[in-house]
Specification:
Tctex-1-like; Tctex-1-like_sf; Ribosomal protein S3 C-terminal domain; single chain; alpha+beta
Amino acid sequence: MGDVDDRKSKSTLRMQQSKSLASMGKSMSRMRVRKRSFGFGGVSGIRPMERSSQLGLEFKRPPLVFLPTYQLEPHEKFHLEKVTKFVEKMIDENFTDHKYDGQGSPALALRLAGELMREIKAMGYKRYRVISVVTIGQKRAQSFSNAIAFLWDYERDNYVEAHRETCTAYIQVLLFAIYLD
């Protein structure tokens, strides 16, 4: 009877060990097989390759890089015809039959420059800097020369020039529309 009990206890002990090792043994046996079949486990100095379900660094997709999306062109270009007609109308309204006056003419030039700038900006040319230069001078048999210099973008920047003369005075209006990048 002692032999039978020993056999039963040994067999139950083996079954319990096999059950506990069975769950752990599967993964251990897979690791052993993997190391033997895919790596150089038997060669000294060479480490076995690590395998996993994740892709290696060389197979990963590079991170997305977005290029700058700066607006380089205007949504609405500066319309020369429309602005020129408006400038001509303003000159006709304010300068017809004007007689040069030392105090009234500079005030008229300042007021006209401000009105032109406000009205052109109200037309909705976004991202354009509007520069208005109005010159009123007295006609006295003299010459007039005007020069303005700055950097210019021929594709986006534009200007309007208009002038009138009466018997005692002249007016020159320069209106620049410079596009801001």
